[in-house]
Structures are given as structure tokens and as C-alpha cells.
Amino acid sequence: MADNINMRKQSDWRTKASGSRRKQMERYVLCWRLTNVPKNTPISKRKYYVQGQGQLCENCYYELFKQGVFSGEDNMNT
């Protein structure tokens, strides 16, 4: 029975840890998937960030670029 309680505590800890990591990462503004970009990363260090809009994934960025929504040279940080 004690083993069962310890396993539950470990499981709770893992859930809380992964949840807190998720909260610290950005989400893409169009497709809303979780990024691998920490929220505290300066925008000058990000790829596919559109000023005034937010973080885009590579696919969404190029889809908008193809549609002529914005000029990629002015908005994409490399």
C-alpha cells in the first residue's frame, strides 16, 4: 500500500512539473501549438516572430508570406 502512495506522489510531481514547463513556453498565435520557445526569449532572438502579432510556426509564417500578408524581410528575426 505504501508503494502505491509513493507511485501516486511521483505521478503528481511529474504532472505538475510538465504543466509548469508548458506554462513557460510560448504558443504559436495561429495554430496554437506549443512552441519550444521560452516566454522570456527576447523577440530579437526568435525566428518567425511577427512584431505586433506574435510567434508563428514555420509553416504558418511561410503560408502567410506566400499570400503576401507581410514582407518577410522586415518581420522575421533570424
Structure description:
- The strands form 2 sheets. The protein has a two-stranded antiparallel ribbon with strand order 1-2. Strands 3-4 form a two-stranded antiparallel ribbon.
- The mean pLDDT is 76.
- By secondary structure, the protein is of the alpha+beta class.
- It contains 3 helices and 4 strands.
Topology:
Layout: H1 2-24, E1 25-27, E2 34-38, E3 49-50, E4 54-55, H2 58-66, H3 72-75
Antiparallel strand pairs: 1-2, 3-4
Beta percentage is 15-25%
Query: Biggest sheet, open or closed, and with what strands and sense?
Result: 2 strands, antiparallel
State the shape: globular
Determine Rg (CA atoms, Å).
18 Å
In short:
The protein is of the alpha+beta class and 78 residues long.
Structure characteristics:
78 residues; 4 strands; two-stranded antiparallel ribbon; alpha+beta
